[in-house]
Design a protein that fits this description.
The protein is an alpha+beta fold. The chain has five helices and seven strands. It has a single domain, classed as RNA-binding S4 domain (Structural Genomics Hypothetical 15.5 Kd Protein In mrcA-pckA Intergenic Region, Chain A), CATH 3.10.290.
């Protein structure tokens, strides 16, 4: 017996199947936090999507504009998961990528090299960095 193709799927299930989030609960939290939009409106986790819908997903400090091509409810291998959507690349997203890379390069990285409780001298050095 063959399964019939899906007509609609919950957005949190689809985001998990398309590998944008590792778990369905993470996808649901993203929807609740307003990080996912369907056709321009903020989506709740129980919102149903269909092929042809446009999504805006905020993942890993960047916005991704997607068009839903196919539906799935369960996790798929990476190669098949990428066939579920088409990412719309605009000049703005390219500029956003470049800006994020520049910000990461400009951001100083401070690694604390002390283990355990700092000594008085180490504490003074730490206080210099805080001020």
């Amino acid at each position: 017996m063959r399964k019939q193709p899906l007509e609609t799927v919950r957005i949190d299930r689809w985001l998990n199947a398309a590998r944008f989030y590792k778990t369905r609960s993470q996808a649901a939290k993203a929807c609740e936090g307003g990080k996912v939009k369907v056709n321009g409106t903020t989506a709740k986790p129980h919102k149903f999507i269909k092929p042809g819908d446009y999504l805006t997903v905020h993942v890993h400090d960047r916005y991704r504009n997607l068009e839903v091509l196919a539906l799935a409810e369960r996790g798929l291998p990476a190669a098949k998961a990428q066939k579920l959507y088409h990412e719309k690349i605009t000049e703005l997203t390219i500029e956003q990528k470049e800006l994020m890379e520049l910000m990461k390069k400009a951001e100083p990285v401070h690694h604390i090299k002390y283990k355990g409780r700092p000594t008085k001298k180490e504490r003074r050095n730490l206080d210099k960095w805080k001020i």
